[in-house]
Structures are given as structure tokens and as C-alpha cells.
Design brief:
This protein has one domain: Vaccinia Virus protein VP39 (Rossmann fold), CATH 3.40.50. Helix content is about 30%, strand content about 25%. It has seven helices and nine strands, in the order H-H-E-H-E-H-E-E-E-E-H-E-H-E-H-E. The protein is globular, with a radius of gyration of 16 Å. About 35% of the residues are buried.
Length: about 220
């Protein structure tokens, strides 16, 4: 997936991947991470996700990374924030009220941008990438996160031949392959969610499973 693909989606407001409510898995399973009040949480490929606001309301500091400036600016506008804008090459940084969004490429992130991160919420990042990029993504993620950081990861699993991604199908087995060398992998929930997702029914899927996984880096 080239950068222009996602930039164009935001420019044309073709953002069916954006959720207009807090992710249910985040609400249900976040406590499993047992991270302290005020801990820094990373949200990759964050868009204008309401999940960042929810995490802030739980008392966490939040840092997101997002390719599209349209998405980053929309988050602050829709939450009635006026962020401070600074440039820290290679990122444009928007920050206010304990939420910082780095506008730029995830793969340009280094350890310094994620210093102090205790946890990650990944609901829309891994499944947004084709197979070859998922390998690169997981490798980069584990290389820049502090040791013992935890990742709450939500993926969907469906017959890939029935629908072209994104979002792509990512099985629990693939998660273990991608992260198993560097993290302990714990399956928290596995649910049939096709009945609750009309747009995927309309695209012809015969099966849709949601996987919620907790990764703890070693």
C-alpha cells in the first residue's frame, strides 16, 4: 500500500475504517494491561480515532502517528482542541491536553519518539497492511518500543479470497508468526462478528471473526 492510497482516502473522505464510537474491545480489555495512571500509550496509524480521547480520559498520556494531516487536524477540531503545532523532522507535531499526534510515516519513527511508552492500542494498523508490509510493520514496531511494553491488538479474520483488503484478514496464527520471536502472545477473545457488520455482509463475506490479542514484549 503506497502512502498516496491513504492520503487520497482522507482527501476524498472515503474513511469507512473510521469508527464513530469507542472500540468495544478497548473498553472491555484495556484493564488487562494493568498499566498505571499517567502512563504513555501509543496509537499507530491513529487517524482521528475517538479511542485516543477515551485513553486520555482514563488518565493516560497519548501519542499517535498518522500519515494524513487532514486526519490529524480533524481529530483536534472535532474534539474542540486547539493544538500547538511544531515541526520535529521528519514529523509535524500537534499537541494539546496530553495528546500528541506525529504527522508522518510510521516507518520513520525511532526509539526516541516512543521513549516511555508502556502500551500500544492497535485496532486499525496491522489489518490495514498487505502481507509483506505486515512483516515490516511488526519488525519495526518491536524494534522501537521499550522492553516489556504491551500491545492490545485487534484483528479480523475472514476468507481473504472473498474480499480484497484493506482491511486484510490477519489470523491468530499469523500474529504468533509476526510477533512470537519478540513477545508473549495471549489470545483474549475470538468472536463471530459478521452479524454486526452489514458492510462486510454486503461485500460477500461468509465468515468474519474478531481476534483480540495481548502481546507483551520480552
Amino acid at each position: 500500500m503506497k502512502k498516496d492510497f491513504w492520503l487520497e482516502r482522507w482527501e476524498k473522505e472515503e474513511i469507512g475504517f473510521h469508527q464513530d464510537e469507542i472500540n468495544p474491545c478497548l473498553r472491555e480489555f484495556w484493564q488487562k494491561l494493568r498499566i498505571g495512571y499517567g502512563s504513555l500509550v501509543f496509537v499507530p496509524l491513529c487517524g482521528k480515532s475517538l479511542d485516543m480521547q477515551w485513553l486520555r480520559e482514563q488518565g493516560h498520556q497519548v501519542v499517535g502517528v498518522e500519515l494524513s494531516a487532514i486526519a490529524a487536524q480533524a481529530f483536534f477540531q472535532e474534539n474542540e482542541y486547539i493544538p500547538q503545532h511544531t515541526v520535529r523532522e521528519p514529523f509535524d507535531c500537534y499537541e494539546v491536553n496530553g495528546i500528541r499526534i506525529l504527522c508522518g510515516d510510521f516507518f520513520d519513527l525511532g526509539r526516541e519518539e516512543l521513549t516511555g511508552v508502556r502500551a500500544v492500542f492497535d485496532r486499525a494498523s496491522l489489518i490495514a497492511l498487505p502481507p509483506e508490509m505486515r512483516v515490516r510493520y511488526a519488525r519495526h514496531m518491536t524494534s522501537i518500543l521499550p522492553r516489556a511494553a504491551q500491545i492490545l491488538l485487534v484483528t479480523i479474520d475472514y476468507p481473504q479470497q472473498e474480499m480484497s483488503g484493506p482491511p486484510f484478514s490477519v489470523t491468530v496464527s499469523e500474529i504468533e508468526t509476526l510477533y512470537g520471536e519478540h513477545a508473549d502472545v495471549r489470545l483474549l477473545a475470538q468472536r463471530d462478528v459478521l452479524a454486526q457488520n452489514l458492510r462486510f455482509q454486503q461485500r460477500g463475506l461468509s465468515r468474519l471473526q474478531e481476534n483480540t490479542v495481548l502481546l507483551t514484549l520480552r
